[in-house]
Design a protein that fits this description.
Length: about 110
């Protein structure tokens, strides 16, 4: 499978586990905790597979960027977190960074 697709899937699973941390409530809720831990493990595994081909600095930055953007957006939608212009601009800057890393990396 394409390394960039693996990395995208790893990033999406990072969003799942990041949001899952909120629902797991300090790992006191078994079902949410199990989903969160499974997503963590799968996300790391897919990141490791992608890093076989992609430079680790690029893979890790893109992975964390996808997770950060997704978690921030879901935080706004699910948990009524701030939707200030400054916050949205900063999220957009992360997206620009992810795109820049994708365009500048081999693979």
């Amino acid at each position: 499978m394409n390394a960039w697709l693996l990395l995208l899937l790893a990033g999406l699973l990072e969003i799942v586990w990041a949001v899952g941390l909120k629902y797991a409530d300090g790992f006191t809720k078994p079902a949410a905790s199990a989903i969160t831990i499974a997503a963590m493990a799968a996300s790391m595994y897919l990141l490791a597979l992608a890093a076989r081909t992609l430079p680790i600095g690029t893979a890790y930055a893109v992975w964390t960027g996808i997770g950060a953007v997704g978690a921030a957006l879901l935080g706004m939608m699910l948990f009524a977190e701030s939707t200030s212009i400054v916050r949205i601009v900063c999220i957009a800057l992360i997206v620009v960074g992810i795109v820049g890393l994708k365009l500048s990396a081999p693979g």
